[in-house]
């Protein structure tokens, strides 16, 4: 049995914090707001397609919302969730691009070629252009579509931009990490550029405005200029609460008693985002949209624990396939929900929003076969059983293979060195290297040095490459059952084999120095011309240029950047 080491706290202090309680999901924390489960409150009839507001936050930890017992103040989110339906069996992906791509396409990463890492600023890569996106389907259904916030689905050519992928308007950043005020982003030493765009133009004039406020104000402006008689879809992808940890001082002051500086700044950013959601909700009511609206709230991945986030009491963090990396905060708030004020344990995945929202919009899904998502609206609105019974968390053939994995350990049908994870029913299987595996409580104490957040660390089992958990009975992944239930391991490995047969090649091309902002007026933006649009295929290395002279002019620079990138890769998030 695994041995756990406790450092820095006594058992009594842990119990006083409530961190060792098995009843972390007891009614006092996340159960339904008091209501009769048989309540039959009828919503307004669906006389016309509803307005859809999808709010996605960045790097917000599972613990970091009021109704999960957090020390961070989120009164707006708590109220919206309490009056709607909380999704407590809701899954996302462990990092940015994968979650966003699956939301926009309704397909697993293995079916878009984006199963490895994220799309980096200098890569000639983007969401595959043959994918029909969620906003495109909503446009077909007569919706006005708008995006505000972080894209992070590639931009190396104009066809990849949000306004070419189904959005009528766009205000936000194209890369994955920008300053909240200056909108500068550095992709390595000396590779820096401005990244705030209005449509397909650089929005230089917006510099200096805090992004969380700017994005909420833009949503209000969109609602004010649109008619509530016409359906609208607004995708609000807040940059918050991704690093850098920046917030207006008045929000930080609220948490002045919080000893840990990173946690203090992070908490301020979460509360600031909560108030931005309040302003958006107020605008929906002011301009006449609210009664016919559906608000979906979702995180994009688990919290980054060394940047103030907390996924407690779940195991792991952002970038891992433990529950702390893939179980998300999610809820739906709408006057149109039939059974409100409750908690749903229906299994829901981020891919499910595509068919769910298109169905709500009365759109046509018949011409987009092969979706991995399901329409889960009956489960959300009426409390019916979820049509989903399993989730492929991912199969990443390029991630560092586990040292101790082998085909033999996978019954001769699966190489357990490969990073993969799947959930089927109540069972969850992980193979390869799932990522950092500690249980990390909120970092509220002062002067935690070095490995300060490692309250509880797994000290054996490091030579493993297969883990099995009954995730319903053991949501914290403390009891590995892979040795006791080889039959279940084999069954789930067979499911991985099945999915792997449907996977397309990984799209992860080498970075290109032509993407440097210095060649684009100091801003990140499309850099590949129409002439060399066919220079890259699939996910391999860039193909040889037809214009050899042109390539030779930058070959030395390209080699330099590749070597530099190799050195930096291990330090990137």
Summarize the structure.
With 573 residues, the protein is an alpha/beta fold. It has helices at 11-17, 27-30, 75-83, 96-105, 134-140, 211-225, 249-254, 261-286, 323-326, 353-360, 377-382, 486-502, 548-552, 555-569; strands at 4-6, 51-57, 85-87, 90-91, 144-150, 169-173, 184-186, 192-194, 197-198, 201-202, 232-237, 293-299, 330-333, 342-344, 348-349, 390-396, 419-424, 427-431, 456-458, 466-470.
Structural account:
The chain has helices at residues 11-17, 27-30, 75-83, 96-105, 134-140, 211-225, 249-254, 261-286, 323-326, 353-360, 377-382, 486-502, 548-552, 555-569, and strands spanning 4-6, 51-57, 85-87, 90-91, 144-150, 169-173, 184-186, 192-194, 197-198, 201-202, 232-237, 293-299, 330-333, 342-344, 348-349, 390-396, 419-424, 427-431, 456-458, 466-470. The protein contains 14 helices and 20 strands. The model is unreliable at 1-45, 445-454 and 536-573 (pLDDT under 50). The chain has a 10-stranded mixed beta sheet with strand order 10-9-6-5-11-2-12-13-3-14, with helices on both faces. Helix 6 packs parallel to helix 8. It has a domain at 51-388: 3-Layer(aba) Sandwich (Alkaline Phosphatase, subunit A), CATH 3.40.720.10. It is globular. Strand 17 and strand 18 (427-431) form a beta hairpin. The protein starts with a strand and ends with a helix. With 573 residues, the chain is α/β, with parallel strands linked by helices. Pfam families: Sulfatase. InterPro entries: Alkaline_phosphatase_core_sf (IPR017850), ARSB (IPR047115), Sulfatase_CS (IPR024607), Sulfatase_N (IPR000917).
